């Protein structure tokens, strides 16, 4: 906050602090995002069919996330676990 990149936003009746970027902060983060985008694009442009591969990877990650969530729900439904066996 000392370099004026963000400011505290006071919300009435709320004990938690919220922050927002200043114009200077938004400009800096936009430049940073553009730099990251350029670097990522440069690194992936030589991968054959990168868009299709990323779409397929997204599907697999979504499937794995669903399986992980389901395992968590099922394991939470067990009333006890016998640690002696």
Describe the structure.
This protein is mostly helical. It folds into two domains: 45 residues; 29 residues. The chain is built from two helices and two strands. It has a two-stranded antiparallel sheet. It is flat and about 60 Å long. The chain starts with 5 loop residues before the first strand and ends in a 9-residue tail after the last helix.
Chain oligomer state:
single chain
- N-to-C order of helices and strands: EEHH
Q: Which value, in Å, is the CA radius of gyration?
A: 23 Å
- Strand arrangement in the largest pleated sheet: 1-2
Overall mean pLDDT stands at: 89
Q: Kindly state the number of beta strands.
A: 2
Number of helices: 2
Distance between the termini: 55 Å
Q: State which percent range the strand residues make up.
A: 5-15%
Helix content: 55-70%
**Shape assignment:** flat
Uncertain parts: none
Look at the helices and sheets and give the structural class: mainly alpha
Biggest beta sheet attributes: 2 strands, antiparallel
User: What count of domains describes the coordinates?
Assistant: 2
Question: What is the topology?
Answer:
Layout: E1 6-9, E2 18-21, H1 23-44, H2 50-76
Antiparallel strand pairs: 1-2
Characteristic key phrases:
single chain, 85 residues, mainly alpha
Give a brief rundown of this model.
58% of the residues lie in helices and 9% in strands. The protein has two helices and two strands, in the order ββαα.
